[in-house]
Amino acid sequence: MPRDLPDAQQKALFATGHRVGDLAKELFPGGDEIAFDSKNFDGMACRTRELIDNGVSTIYEATFRSANGFAMVDILHRGDKGWEMYEVKASASVKDYHLWDAAFQYRVLRACGMEPLKVAIVHIDNSYVRGEELEVERLFAIEDVTEEILAMQEKVGMRMQAFDKLLSGPEPDIDIGEQCSIFYDCDYHGHCWAHVPSPSVFDLYRMGDARKFEMYRSGIVRYEDIPDDFPLNPIQRIQIETAKSGEIHVNPSVIETFLEKLCFPLNFFDFETFQEAIPRFKGQRPYMQMPFQYSIHILHENGMLEHREFLGDEHHDPRRELVERMLEDITPRGSIVAFNRSFEISRIRELAEAFPEYRDRLLKLAERFVDLIEPFRGLGYYHPDFNGSFSIKSVLPALFPDDPELDYTALAIQNGGMAMDVFGNLHRLKDQKKREEIRRSLLAYCRLDTLAMVRIYEKLKEEVVHGDDR
Ligand code: SF4
Q1: Residue 196 beta carbon below 6 angstroms from any ligand 1 atom
Q2: What pTM does this model have?
């Protein structure tokens, strides 16, 4: 069956995994690496055996092949008492599936006559704060999981037998279920979910998976299948009603209450951030959200609209310059309008911690935020095309379906995740022309985020003024 291809964000995750894996080797320097050869797994296993027999102390990607298993150990190290096995993970903690992964590898090794005395998961320690230099020993945490791995061996054996049986039989006839996204979204999502219509109960706003699958299994899939007396929250009910009627739901008093909170000039504001597993700058923690860009559209009471923006230098920590420019660019009075303000407020509070000299001024900004998502979540305005999502990427095209100026899909960078990956990798790009092009795309993307908010605000205002005429 056809498998979903990895998207740009998944590829970026793989690249992070490789970089983290390479860096972790420095914890056990001087080892020999088994080169990956997809056409010759046996050759990789033979080379590993050769190195072991030759008495080497550390092997990276040590490869083992048993009758029904294949394992590549990230780091196999000969300690004082015997072999030790280290699995490197780019995450900030040990997850259940890391243990299953290591337990499987351990079983394959044992079947090949190798019984490591220690099994450990090497993962990122996100409490580490980088100083002038990166300290690899402090960036990584090593968790000894030997006991857990030994205790899992019987279960792993049973699972391997079950997998063997499964692989030798016909394609199993299993319907979609909670298993489709337990750890990650399954690669076969596109294939197995093709029969689920849109919209369906799986789009219902903030309904837990268990309940959605319970409905699905009892034959309730489309909105038309949902009985009238089925218990739903008010947003879910409006979602279904508008989908059936095709009409927009408007509650002007909710919109009015929101608009009354706003003070001119209105600063429509949006941050972009990047996150890195391996911190590049002094004071940076692994995976911390690093603001590198903002866009502000300032709407004055007389209708004049100004645009201000900042995009940091990809080679340096952009935060100090961003703070200084932001404090100049945001007007001294008036509301700061964000879509889902908790994100922007959290970043501003973190910046206040990082730059105590600007702390008071930054914290004062945090008090001025107003959230443009509020009138939507409060059911002041619901369009059937929101399909249970109040993100700006759902709201904007529903409100302005044919406006090329407000079309994210026409941009090279179309969402915050892409902006994050692109900026995080920009310093690696040698081609100056290409770098400039990407920087222009980043500016265009962030600019649209705040222009979108201006247009959404105007639309809400229009609803209150002209709502009765519709
Ligand atoms: S987990 Fe779900 S999506 Fe993946 S193969 Fe099974 S049914 Fe299909």
Answers
A1: no
A2: 0.90
